[in-house]
Amino acid sequence: MRRGFVYAMNSSMTSIGPCHSMSSFQISSTPISSGLLNIFGQLDLAVEYLMVHKDFQSAFDTCQRGFENLDNVAEEEDSRYGELKASLCTVGIQALAEHNQWRGVLGWVLQHFGSADKMPPKIMQMCILLYSKVGEHATMQEEGHMWLHCPDNTNLSGYGTVAELYLLHVLIPLGLTTEAQQLVAGEVGSAAFTADQRQVALDLIDSQKSPQERQTPSPGPGATPQMTTNLITSQGSVVQRLHGMLRLLQRGISVVRSSWKFVPLRRFLLTAFLLYLLLVRMDPALPSSFPWVLKLLRLLKQMWYAMFGPYYRASAAV
Question: What is this structure's pTM?
């Protein structure tokens, strides 16, 4: 894992950790407890290990100690509890990624937040980008779905960004175009994107579909797999009958051309009548065309028996 791995994913992600130095927290008018002040110092030390010394293991270990101390501090004690927790998590994710231990990132994050829907937007964005970078798109499929469908996250400032990353780096790379369309057209898309953004997203999803998915018509809402199978079978039988009829028609016309001496007018009328039956009156996709097919087939059989069949068949045909 090359250095600067996570930083290259999104430069805005790094603003959570290094910029929140201990001095910046002291500017606030709210007094800081001694417990939180100690954790702030550990955060600064972890950032120094990560960015200055490139000692990723020490940076991660320092974040771990910060979380242990944070567990002893009540969340209501200071309004910056959540921000400090996210900062420690951000530095820890970067340290694990740089130390080529990215496989344990999700489990470590869930260990501190309990469930995926409790993650801050920045942490969810980092996890999606991290696992997308290493080609493990499916790792964040369930967690991203849970986070986006949590009502408490809908009004967060980073909700739209998480939805966009989940669409581009999880669903589309996995080929889940149906799920992607449902996401954009559903409640998540309405909350995360504008109308123009939803249209652009739908066009992008459509461009990622395979040619078979674009050409195959989707069955109706009441269609069942058995109905679809019966429809395909019936269409196949109609096509087979049509092919057989055309082969018989071609054979009959060739025989008529070589054996009978029609005048040009009668030959033209016969050809026009056959073309009328084929092109106008007979649509193989409609059940109403079956009687015309049978009549034409019977007529051709009569012509065949009259010209080449035994005497008794010719008499019966007449």
Answer: 0.60
